[in-house]
């Protein structure tokens, strides 16, 4: 499931996995993993900005 969420972030998910994911009964896990992935992405960008500013 985590791989499906990260693949969806990059837009490289296969059609088979896409259909499998949307056939599941609960969307809550995908929402939770999606929010976690978005938060992780924002945190990484924040750290990269801090790193870049420390060298400026």
Explain this structure.
- The chain has 56 residues and is mostly helical.
- The chain has one domain (2-54).
- Helices cover 80% and strands 0% of the residues.
- It contains three helices and no strands.
- It has helices at 2-10, 15-23, 28-54.
- It is elongated and about 50 Å long.
Give the SSE layout.
Blueprint: H1 2-10, H2 15-23, H3 28-54
Helix pairs in contact: 1-3
**Radius of gyration in whole Å, from Cα?**
15 Å
Give the CA-based shape.
elongated
Strand content: under 5%
N- to C-terminal distance: 40 Å
Question: Which bin fits the share of residues in helices?
Answer: over 70%
- Run of helices and strands: HHH
- The secondary-structure class comes to mainly alpha
Count of β-strands: 0
Low-confidence stretches: none
Mean pLDDT: 85
Number of helices: 3
What's the main sheet like? none
For the record, the count of structural domains works out to 1
Oligomer: single chain
Question: What attributes characterize this protein structure?
Answer:
56 residues; mainly alpha; 3 helices
